[in-house]
Design a protein that fits this description.
The chain has 149 residues and is mainly alpha-helical. It has one domain (7-147): Rossmann fold (3-Layer(aba) Sandwich). It contains 6 helices and 3 strands. Strands 1-2-3 form a 3-stranded parallel β-sheet, with helices on both faces. It is an enzyme of class 1 (oxidoreductase).
Length: 149
Amino acid sequence: ELKTVDLLINGAGILDDNQIERTIAVNFTGTVNTTTAIMDFWDKRKGGPGGVIANICSVTGFNSIYQVPVYSASKAAALSFTTSLAKLAHITGVTAYSINPGITKTVLVHKFNSWLSVEPRVAELLLEHPTQTTLQCAQNFVKAIEANQ
């Protein structure tokens, strides 16, 4: 019915540092692949209409959680990729945002594996910090896009 896509939200993510390749594949490579696919249609240099990409990264892209360095690095890579895309908007016509939520109460944070099992209680320790609900995260996500920031 719509015949067009205006917004791509890349939101897949896993948190299991014992699955190194899978963590990188989902959190970073997946983001790159879906973004690359939509860019073929949106890039104004190819006659596309432009569009908006919102990649859900993480505050760990700025401040890594040392117990999960693979997850943190995968999110930092996604953040860097998105920042680069944002700087190309004047060329491609595609706006790119990174959404960098803090600790959000999802299945990801209830139980997960730290890198080389360095901290078996990492999920429990993480939840000692301030958290947000998925609804609060989503509302802030929409506000950020609407504010164009």
